[in-house]
Specification:
Helix content is about 25%, strand content about 25%. It has about 1100 residues and is α+β, with helices and mostly antiparallel strands. Strands 3, 4, 5, 6, 7, 8, 9 and 10 form an 8-stranded antiparallel beta sheet that branches. Helix 1 crosses helix 12 (about 460-475), helix 8 (about 275-290) crosses helix 12 and helix 19 crosses helix 20 (about 1045-1060). The longest helix has about 45 residues, at about 200-250.
């Protein structure tokens, strides 16, 4: 795992998911122990998957194919579990791959109870420490790099301080007395109730019973809280004694880490608390995803690190490969994956990957933290603390914020670091770190509201916060890790490079001889593309109903990253039979290793693969014809790189700097090495490569707030503070719950998580997509306010035409003001484009959303040999796409047996997913009722993927007649369509068409799904309302404004007020009524499905 924002591949973790994983691990470990296996054995270790999780128990009653199908269906279904599900239990010893040393390592989740007692730490106990152990006594085994260093240290090891000092022996007696006090209070309450509750009537009995029970419960609770407070305070005193001891005896201890603790203590108080905001933001995301239903939202409104720093308990260097005789070997550098050798250019005699070159230093650091002794308000702020706000409410009508003070009482854990050093400044490139188990965390929670009791701890909330912290850190536990490119961070690049290595271009042509899955002897096939192990569908074709030989002719683009290569993924094409009332049936599938496809880059290969299946069959009926090619990224063009201003001084080698004027260079022709690659921030994209990978990352939004729409007078009215220059308050009652949507070329592709009730939402989220032509691509980042029982209003939009913002660089990171909404703020956004070595034809460079325009008369010409046998049922012509339809009456310009012409004005037909859609002409359509459905005498089809954007194209289409027009119109008609489809060409249809790229006002009534409605609302704010306003401005050009024009003007005005929550739309009941009306309208039964699947919007949550 590299340093990357939350995305569809790196979702926000949840406590529930973490708890489930831990429960599986516990079951597996128990099973290993029951069989007599142990983690100390090299041969009998707990079985783990690649992520260090225990493998689930085998389903013995299932066949291999059934198991595979079950696993596939589970992957295709979205995971609805919460992050906190996987962290309820601490996992024991387990063997995982260490991303630092590249070898196996035994790790376990940290627990405070694992710390030894004073008797174990006593140097007089007779147990020798590691420094005094011989080889036969196990010291080498204990401190081998395959084991995490003991935490805490053993005696006699002068490099580690004993931690912590033991508890006083009298503490156990005091704790037992408090236990007995609790039982005594409860028992005394029972005796008191027995003697005084009876003999005075039912009401007196009820009153005294409730009173005595309440008093007993309160008394026992106070005793329990006193016990917990005393125990926690002693723990803090023990840790403080350890700190004082380490600071006092640090100078005489040569190998002590107290010098580093002294450094940390000084730096800790100087750190800006804003640096911890991303950490708090991650914890907030986990809690938000894991909230119980009665809590609407939670936010971390404040975070402080205090003055009490983390302490380093132990630190050791790990054996690294540079110390070996054969260093450097390639498998050491790339952690045993052999990726570098496989990816190396065969023409390069000395291949070198800059991300792997250089020397490494490995460290293992055990750290701990304990709050300072004392619970007063003055000392409380010296410890690490969070201020939470839980929002309780009912049906979004009432919001009750409850502030909670969370103090971190203790943290303990171990981390391994791998630092890469390079010979050029800043001399450090990558820092990889991984946790050796989930750190132990202890927190205390105090409500800060007068109406609630100010008790020491709220167990439910404290447990919830601890689980959230554990779930957040679980994503960094070995074998997972995070890599930070320090060189890029110091250089100022926000992204630097895309996660994707390249792109697969997949042309799905046709399938033949498919098996019948329906009772009518047919199937309704569609194809899903995915990575086999990942399982999530990444592309889906249209559904072709009732066909065993479908002709798709669709093109898909799939990004490939290091994760797919390291996991030995396979690219899978799965053919499914669509069923309305049951689960879809598998027709067959094809799987190809990703590495095999990447071995021959930048060229397409035609394939014919027989279908394989699950369960008892290794092969299924059918053959898939398709083409696949892998295209990698193109290096930046050095000729386009802008020079530095001012230019840097000329660099001299070390030898040149030591030379005197009369000296002669030892090798004048020698060079210092290859020049550095072009700077992404000074090199624009190469116009010769229009297609590539676009990365959009939303970092945060500054000063996000909603407009004051209710109106006020005097100093409270909008803008009174001087153009609203006041900083928004985090305590206001008008805080937005913001989230962002990324819309590329009028298609919604990504949605972030919701950041509840904050004016400074940190997202650090984004996505990567393949774009066909960066010069024509428009990115819009929409900021919305999440609300219940009303439409989420647009707070603002950031409009980013790539041709304008990428004029001087391939990456741009800056603050953009959000506009055209009901809010204010500035969004920090990064945009990066990397071209790939694929040059698509002109017709494949367009947008996927547009409007088909028929510009000239439509003429049908019948071939002479078919003039006598063919007769029109009517002169009606229906022109349609899969989304819209236009019916043209029987009025014709001319008509005879050989030629029919329809004189039409410009016809506009909105279309979505146009690269899998067609423009269909139903000639001579005759309607029908009931079972006698309407049909056309002939059919002409133009697939829109063959038409370039914004160009007038004269088309001549074959006029087809068939017994099964319904099936024929779904297929791409070419030479392959003759397989299994009977049709005859009787003539030709000619006209001129044009595809107007992007949305327009005609799309509004066809935007059915939420993704398309949100995309249209964004377009409407930026362009649509302006187009309608310009159109209405010419309503009176003829001197008269008729009723139709007046109604259009009033509707446009009403729409503008509603979209900006002005006029009557500023009142919430009205907005709720509009939301309910539109919801009912969308749920009304409509027309039948077009066969195209709705696009899936990626998300991090």
């Amino acid at each position: 795992m590299s340093s990357q924002p939350y995305s569809e591949n790196n979702p926000v973790p949840t406590i529930q998911k973490y708890e489930e994983d831990k429960e599986k691990q516990e079951k597996q470990l128990d099973a290993e122990i029951a069989r007599g296996d142990g983690v100390d054995s090299n041969n009998d270790r707990p079985t783990n998957d690649s992520n260090g999780n225990a493998e689930p128990e085998k389903d013995e009653h299932l066949t291999e194919g059934q198991k595979e199908k079950k696993e596939m269906m589970e992957k295709m279904n979205a995971n609805k579990e919460k992050p906190t599900d996987t962290v309820k239990k601490r996992r024991g010893d387990r063997v995982v791959d260490d991303p630092v040393t590249g070898e196996k390592v035994i790790i376990k989740d940290a627990q405070f109870k694992d710390f030894p007692t004073q008797q174990q730490l006593d140097p007089k106990s007779g147990v020798p420490g590691p420094s005094n152990m011989g080889v036969t006594q196990g010291a080498s085994k204990m401190f081998h790099q395959s084991r995490t260093a003991p935490n805490p240290a053993h005696p006699s090891n002068i490099s580690l301080q004993p931690f912590p000092p033991s508890s006083p022996p009298s503490l156990d007696n005091i704790m037992n007395l408090l236990y007995y006090l609790e039982y005594g209070i409860m028992g005394g309450g029972v005796l008191l109730w027995f003697f005084v509750a009876f003999g005075h009537g039912i009401w007196v009995w009820l009153f005294r019973s409730i009173l005595i029970s309440a008093l007993s419960f309160v008394g026992a609770t106070v005793a329990s809280l006193a016990q917990r407070k005393l125990e926690r305070e002693v723990e803090r005193v023990r840790f403080d004694m350890h700190r004082q001891r380490g600071e006092k005896y640090a100078p005489p201890t040569p190998e002590s880490v107290e010098w580093l603790n002294a450094f940390t203590k000084v730096i800790w108080g100087l750190i800006n608390p804003d640096m911890f905001v991303p950490v708090a933001d991650s914890i907030e995301d986990v809690m938000q995803q894991s909230l119980p239903k009665f809590v609407e939202a939670v936010r971390i409104s404040d975070i402080g690190q205090g003055t009490n720093p983390f302490r380093i308990v132990s630190m050791r260097a790990l054996p690294d490969q540079p110390g070996e005789k054969e260093y450097p070997r390639e498998e050491w550098i790339d952690q045993g994956t052999n990726m570098l050798m496989q990816e190396a250019d065969p023409k390069d005699k000395n291949p070198k990957d800059q991300d792997q070159a250089g020397d490494y230093v490995n460290y293992e650091v055990s750290f701990a933290y304990q709050a300072m002794p004392g619970q007063g308000d003055k000392l409380r702020a010296k410890n690490i603390h969070l201020l939470l706000e839980f929002f309780l409410g009912f049906a979004d009508w009432v919001h009750i914020p409850i502030p909670i003070w969370v103090q971190v009482d203790g943290v303990a854990g171990t981390v391994r670091l791998r630092i890469q050093f390079i010979p050029e400044p800043p001399f450090v490139r990558n820092l990889t770190f991984t946790l050796m188990g989930v750190p132990a965390v202890e927190v205390s929670v105090t409500p800060l509201i007068k109406q609630l009791p100010n008790i020491l701890d709220l167990p439910l909330i404290s447990t919830f916060v601890k689980m959230a912290i554990s779930a957040g850190t679980a994503s960094l536990v070995a074998p997972k890790s995070m890599t930070l490119n320090l060189q890029e961070m110091m250089g100022g690049a926000a992204i630097g490079d895309t996660r994707a290595l390249g792109v697969f271009i997949i042309r799905i042509q046709y399938a033949e001889d498919l098996s019948a899955q329906d009772r009518n002897g047919k199937s309704d096939p569609y194809i899903v593309l995915a990575y086999a192990k990942f399982g999530k569908p990444l592309y889906s074709t249209r559904i072709i109903l009732g066909d065993l030989n479908p002709v798709f002719e669709e093109t898909a683009f799939m990004l490939v990253t290091h994760e797919e290569v390291k996991a030995d993924e396979k690219l899978a094409a799965m053919l499914w039979d669509s069923d309305k009332h049951s689960a879809d049936d598998l027709i067959g599938r094809v799987q190809i290793p990703v590495k095999e496809l990447m071995s021959k880059p930048n060229q397409m290969f035609d394939r014919q693969d027989k279908l394989a299946g699950y369960e008892d069959a290794d092969a299924m009926s059918g053959i898939l014809h398709w083409s696949i090619g892998y295209y990698d990224k193109v290096p930046l063009n050095r000729e386009l790189e802008r020079p530095l201003d001012p230019p840097p001084p000329e660099k001299k080698s070390a030898a040149a700097m030591e030379m005197r004027p009369q000296d002669k260079a030892p090798n004048p022709a020698a060079k210092d090495g290859p020049p550095p690659p072009p700077d992404v921030q000074r090199t624009p994209p190469d116009p010769k490569y229009p297609s590539g990978i676009l990365s959009v990352v939303i970092h945060q939004i500054n000063n996000l707030e909603r407009q004051n729409l209710k109106g006020a007078s005097g100093a409270a009215r909008e803008g009174q503070a001087g153009q609203d220059t006041d900083e928004p308050s985090e305590q206001g009652n008008n805080l937005p719950s913001g989230y962002c949507e990324i819309i590329i070329n009028d298609d919604l592709v990504y949605k972030t998580r919701v950041k509840q009730y904050t004016s400074m939402p940190f997202f650090e989220a984004g996505t990567e997509v393949f774009i066909r032509d960066w010069k024509e691509t428009v990115v819009r980042v929409v900021v919305r306010d999440s609300r219940l029982r009303e439409k989420d209003p647009i707070l603002g939009i950031v409009h980013l035409p790539l041709q304008e913002i990428l004029t001087e660089s391939s990456e741009v990171t800056r603050l953009f003001s959000i506009q055209e909404g009901v809010g204010f703020g500035r969004a920090n956004i990064s945009v990066l484009f990397k071209a790939v070595d694929a040059k698509l034809p002109r017709n494949m460079l367009g947008w996927d959303t547009g409007t088909v325009e028929v510009l000239k008369p439509i003429q049908v010409t019948i071939d002479p040999e078919h003039q006598e046998s063919f007769a029109l049922k009517s002169h009606t012509l229906i022109v349609s796409t899969t989304d819209s339809t236009e019916k043209i009456g029987s009025t014709v310009g001319e008509s005879d047996n050989a030629r029919v012409t329809w004189d039409v004005d410009k016809i506009r037909l909105p279309v979505y997913s146009r690269y899998s859609s067609s423009l269909t002409f139903d000639v001579g359509y005759k309607g029908g009722l009931g079972p006698m459905k309407g049909s056309a005498a002939a059919l002409a089809i133009q697939w829109l993927q063959d038409i370039p954007d914004d160009e007038e194209v004269e088309v001549k289409l074959p006029l087809l007649v068939s017994k099964d027009v319904k099936t024929l119109r779904q297929n791409y008609v070419n030479e392959h369509a003759a397989i299994g489809h009977e049709y005859t060409t009787i003539g030709y249809l000619t006209t001129t068409i044009k595809i107007d790229s992007g949305l327009d006002p005609d799309h509004e009534k066809y935007a059915k799904s939420q993704a398309r409605r949100h995309a249209y609302e964004t377009y409407d704010h930026i362009e649509g309302q302006a187009i309608i306003a310009e159109r209405n401005a010419h309503a009176g050009d003829d001197g008269v404004v008729d009723k139709k024009e007046k109604a259009a003007i009033e509707a446009a005005h009403k729409k503008q007020l509603l979209s900006r929550q002005r006029g009557i739309a500023q009142f919430r009941p009205y907005r709720t009524a509009v939301w309910m009306k539109e919801g009912i309208r969308r749920r009304m039964p409509g027309k039948k499905s077009s066969g195209k699947r709705e696009p899936t919007v990626k998300s991090e949550a």
